[in-house]
Specification:
8 strands, eight-stranded parallel β-barrel, TIM Barrel, 14% strand
Length: 308
């Protein structure tokens, strides 16, 4: 399977140097990464709003090794909040954050990540938008869920992500599907051992459907993160059976993937949110997108062999 190989490459400094230097890399990265700066990403938010779409913005970068780097990540999100406020784009753009960027893996990381992410969550709420805590590998999840619970005491609309390939997730979904919650369901993109996660695609998809049903039948706000037409159709049917209106849940897809489907779902009356990453530390994010859909590797391979 290509996915685990690509994920291993995402942690290789040698592969990072090779990919970064390859002549066609920029062409491919630009397909998935909206830009390097806030100024570059703002027009994309405005264009999405014009098309009836919403976005969630992710400042990429996870290799945090010092508290100062974690504070810099916090400040990058606070800068983003200020720009969205100035342009009155808050209601169209939420933010997604990985707690690893806020120092979660450092000594005292749980408290450090909470202290760094709290001002971002509060600033987002002040301009009428929200923050969703992205899920990372299974060893980080108890901390993430505890931080999520703590943040919701003051900002109850703070969202979180759950991953269908983990055995624990159905129980997490039941716990999180209460009134006022916002939960994004994805398949999962980290290499996890067979002791904690399904390894077979069919089993992951079955779990995704079971978890989506739990969220749709709950009292919270489900966010369906998928590009799979079959899972999208199933989610629509589960929403209908649960008596949900089209604005009582949403679909989310990645920037640069199935863009025509973004517009089609919005035109049908669904809330459609585009997960839009930007920043200079793009490598880990980019490699996980390849791991999620190895067919993208063919496009990438052709591009890096192209001169100039």
């Amino acid at each position: 399977m290509l996915g685990p190989v690509i994920l291993a490459a995402s942690r290789s400094d040698k592969m990072r140097r090779f990919v970064s230097a390859a002549p066609g890399t920029k062409q491919v990265v630009d397909r998935f990464i909206a830009g390097e700066t806030v100024d570059q990403v703002v027009p994309i938010v405005e264009d999405a709003a014009d098309k009836g779409l919403e976005v969630t913005l992710d400042v990429v970068g996870e290799d945090i090794t010092t508290p100062a780097q974690a504070e810099a990540a916090r400040d990058a999100y606070l800068e983003l909040v200020e720009r969205l406020k100035d342009l009155d784009l808050g209601p169209r753009a939420e933010m997604s954050v990985k707690l690893s960027m806020f120092g979660q893996a450092l000594e005292g990381g749980h408290e450090l990540a909470l202290a760094n992410v709290r001002p971002v969550v509060e600033a987002a709420a002040a301009i009428g938008t929200t923050v969703t805590l992205d899920a990372e590998d299974h060893t980080t999840l108890d901390s993430m869920f505890a931080i999520h619970e703590e943040l919701r005491k003051d900002v109850p609309q703070t969202g979180c992500v759950i991953q269908s390939y983990l055995f624990r997730t159905e129980d997490d979904a039941r716990r999180l599907s209460a009134a006022g919650s916002r939960v994004r369901i994805v398949k999962g993109a980290y290499k996890e051992p067979a002791s904690v996660a399904y390894q077979d695609k069919a089993e992951i998809d079955k779990a995704y459907v079971r978890i989506t049903r739990i969220l749709m039948e709950g009292e919270g706000y489900p966010m369906i993160g998928s590009h799979d037409p079959r899972l999208i159709a199933i989610a629509q049917e589960l929403g209908r059976r649960a008596g949900r209106k089209l604005d009582e849940y949403e679909f989310q897809m990645l920037y640069g993937i199935r863009s025509e489907e973004h517009v089609r779902l919005a035109a049908e009356g669904h809330r459609m949110r585009v997960y839009t990453a930007y920043g200079t530390d793009w490598y880990g994010y980019f490699m996980r997108r390849l791991a999620e859909k190895p067919a993208n590797l063919l496009f990438f391979g052709r591009s890096i062999l192209t001169k100039g």
